[in-house]
């Protein structure tokens, strides 16, 4: 009935993705990744350094059916997403419209999304 090609067999990762310890491990990895980003944000060029269409060429045509490891996801963010960002939080960003995001706000959103 849907537009997706659904596989009949169920992946155990899709029904119970993370036990509490794995959730903790991956959560720390994500927070550490973001902390390093903010620690080094002034080293990035403020403006995006890529051309329109850049990301589409780097991504597969469809999302993977099976989950990827957090290590693979973070590597993809580092290599594919960050180069295309405008780094609004950078101390080198002097535009009229400052970003309203903050590390404290990020933690608050994370907490709120957990329930």
UniProtKB/TrEMBL annotation:
GO terms for cellular component: cytoplasm. Its cofactor is pyridoxal 5'-phosphate. One of its GO terms (molecular function) is pyridoxal phosphate binding. Pfam families: Pyridoxal_deC. One of its GO terms (biological process) is carboxylic acid metabolic process. It comes from the Eukaryota. Keywords: Decarboxylase, Lyase, Pyridoxal phosphate. This is Uncharacterized protein. It comes from Opuntia streptacantha.
